[in-house]
């Protein structure tokens, strides 16, 4: 009897490319495949930068623990709604926009359209041509929302007479702000700019905003962290889906709004606006996120992300240890589903400050809470939703102690995006997002997902090494 | 070389008791275990009854398909809230109660307490002793809610001045009713009976009910099926958990309530009541369920359940082919979690018409939608929630086309409980429930789950065979 080469069938562990594993599987050979890739995609320069940070890993881990505690320990309370000139002391002829700083001529069309429309709405210019001249001559200044303790979805345009929600992080004493979400379709933030847009902005400023403000002041502050934790248990990931949070907000607001009353039928009009508006809460989640993320800036040696943001041209990130600096790269195109009559050719690149919700662990990283949203990823459903959250876990340093998911048996969402892990794994944050039409005046054309570009993170990594 | 007994390792299929399978597993023998049990638990008499129905299985399947179509095709719209004397023409000195018919002296304490309290509230008696004499002498009549197109949670007490919600099943033209849910703790339906209970009932009748009615009439009807389908996607199973549905209801109601206004601060008081009331929607889910289940009665040869209900002493079921007849058995004790200061010794047996929600596929059978509620089953969590829904699938003939669960990748909840399957498998419906204190005046002591007793179903099976 000839002796076999092996005493028992071979048991194989395969690394890297799965070609070998698949070949063995076709031969019925037992194989365990590890989807290993070399760190930083095999880029020797990046691997060297990572190694240099490794040399002070203990310091960084301690700093990141402190940064994570600040991030997850935020206590955002919604306390008011006031015009931006009051809440932010926003001056005349200043337009805030989403994303990192950008010059007028590099802005995408929908953001330019929103800027010009806001100038008309404020009465600074009678028409778009006049408004454009004001901007081009510097008579109207452009600044990022993020520089004004504010965040804005999509174009993110804020001017002084617009009411903004005021969120107070009671754990740290800082405040953050966001406008009132206008609804879907033809709205300013998606670059729509006709008279219906301006009329809605006027109603928000003259009736809805003051009524919301009076009601909110009467509440003594709505605990947004508790409300968001509850909504996460109800299928919201709070970027693409805000139905539960919006309904819970209305329920909490209603008695106070009824008490303060307002003009005849003002409450009924506000109720009508709210009752049809499933994304109303998005701006509140964003302001809460900004209020939680801002105090994480400036923890020496921390490699955690404190802002993810897009201006439609560039994607920008901020890193705790590096304070207010932006690290940018060209923004990517979202992929997703389109409204009837629109397709990918109509889409603007990724835009908005709304990725602040991904910064605090919601949105893309919380997809496990929201299988219905996972359909933007492809087949959708539970397994794709769980996979998205599992992927974000790869680049995060912790789990949220408050934002927990029943579908994960009460496990917290991943939180605390670490620049090092992003570069090491080449996995960049997954952002759930709306999609604006690329032509001025179009408005929303769809919704989907986008990736933060790796370039932001490699630039931040270089700066972290240089600053050490 | 000796020849082995078997050419390859044994591969075993084991049936019934799992002792053999477990023994083989300890020997590393590959075994597939089928948890087979003999039909009807090996009861020869029941097996014979099932076999007799098998002889006309085709007729029954056709009848059940028709019954299921009626059950799942119901279109419940909430159209009004009016006093029971208007909506039901409920006469003076009539008290409706939960469950199948029951004589006064066989009622449990909390139901008796609620009956007497209602008599005081209506002004029929100055105190409990006087009220008791009216009941004992027949001057106050007791009738089941179910006989009055109405359902009531727990004690289920309804009298003429109490406002009831009016739900219209627009697919069939019938109506069903339920009182306004009073909230948790010391409330009439849990057998509490002090002055705070009566005061709340008066506020509901004089202020909240009329305001709700005026607002609902202005809506033109709220589509409860759509709202419930949405809430099921938001973690409600709509028996133990109604948070999403309650918040969605407030959001839909608010503009209409604001339009009709009401007395000074009436809207604010209603808003305060609603904003703290996570179980508000339960009674609406029940009235919707009753409106959907009632038209299923009287489909010749159908073995589907059209009502599950408990009066705290007996559990009653109705079967489609047998119309209005009740089949009863002694009710079981719920198991669950208790409020601070209470334990199982304080619990009343299972009670209430609320199991109408299980009749239409919600509650226990929809646990997969609501992992948070599964903690009442033991360890809780996703796997226990999925297992509960999978178990109910064993006794149901279909899946709901509208009530779908994201966590089941959009599969519908099991619906259409078949008496035959219940007897064959000995699996009885799982009911999510509140737990009343067994002593009069206590109120709610906990929440948990209960099982419908098998005896109702074997009695119904006998009657089905006898009626053939």
Describe, in short, the structure shown:
The structure is a homodimer of 468-residue chains. The first copy, chain A, is an alpha+beta fold.
Give the overall pLDDT of chain A as a whole number.
94
The rough form of chain A would be described as globular
Number of domains of chain A: 3
CATH topology of the largest domain in chain A: v583 fold
The number of strands of chain A is: 17
The most extensive contact between chains is: A-B, 37 and 37 residues
Oligomeric assembly: homodimer
Q: How helix-rich are the residues of chain A, as a percent range?
A: 25-40%
CATH class of the largest domain in chain A: Alpha Beta
Give the low-confidence spans of chain A: none
Q: How far apart lie the N and C ends of chain A?
A: 68 Å
Structural class of chain A: alpha+beta
Going across the biggest sheet of chain A, name each strand in turn. 7-6-3-8
Strand content of chain A: 15-25%
CATH architecture of the largest domain in chain A: Alpha-Beta Complex
| CATH 4th-level superfamily of the largest domain in chain A | v583 domain like
Mind describing the biggest β-sheet of chain A?
4 strands, antiparallel
Number of separate helices of chain A? 15
C-alpha Rg of chain A (nearest Å)? 24 Å
Give your account of this protein's structure:
- Helix content of chain A is 37%, strand content 21%.
- In chain A, strand 10 and strand 11 form a beta hairpin.
- Chain A contains 15 helices and 17 strands.
- Chain A folds into 3 domains: 11-36, no CATH class; 45-72 and 289-467, v583 domain like (v583 fold, Alpha-Beta Complex), CATH 3.90.1700; 76-282, Enterococcus faecalis V583 domain (Enterococcus faecalis V583 fold).
- The mean pLDDT of chain A is 94.
- In chain A, helix 8 packs antiparallel against helix 9 (243-260).
- The radius of gyration of chain A is 24 Å and the shape is globular.
- The first copy, chain A, is of the alpha+beta class and 468 residues long.
- In chain A, the strands form 6 sheets. Chain A has a 4-stranded antiparallel β-sheet with strand order 7-6-3-8.
- The first copy, chain A, has helices at 19-26, 44-54, 57-72, 84-87, 109-121, 128-136, 195-219, 224-232, 243-260, 266-275, 282-293, 356-359, 382-393, 419-425, 454-467; strands spanning 11-15, 30-34, 76-83, 94-97, 141-144, 163-169, 174-179, 222-223, 305-311, 314-319, 327-330, 335-338, 351-352, 396-405, 411-417, 430-436, 444-451.
- The N and C termini of chain A lie far apart (68 Å).
- Chain A binds chain B through residues 230, 233-235, 243-244, 246-248, 250-252, 254-259, 265, 267-272, 274-275, 370-372, 381-382, 406-410, and chain B through 230, 233-235, 243-244, 246-248, 250-252, 254-259, 265, 267-272, 274-275, 370-372, 381-382, 406-410.
